[in-house]
Amino acid sequence: MSVAQVFEKLEQNFNADAAQGLDLVFQFDIEDDKTYHLVINDGTCKLHEGAHDDPSVTLIMSSETLQGIVSGETDGMQAFMAGQLRAEGDMMLATKLGELFNMG
């Protein structure tokens, strides 16, 4: 699965109910691919290619780590502790990804 397909799957598995009242930008810097960002705004989710001017949180990882997390094979917290995933900005928002997207 390509990185673009992984993000399309994320967008399809979006939990709109969990995003009511939220206004966030999750940026993903994929070290061996492109940068993408997801704009979460009051129950909606839009995927964009490229960097955002002011993301709420930026997650930096390889495409392999991204695929593992989205497929459910890799635990995001374990990836973070192992140094496979880095976060910049509001790190607590990264923990919300599991609520906002049905992974695995």
From TrEMBL:
GO cellular component terms listed in the entry, alphabetical order: cytosol
Chain ranges passing through the membrane: none
Superkingdom, taxonomy of origin: Bacteria
Sequence ranges assigned to domain SCP2 in this UniProt record: 8-101
Protein name: SCP-2 family sterol carrier protein
Source species: Marinobacter lutaoensis
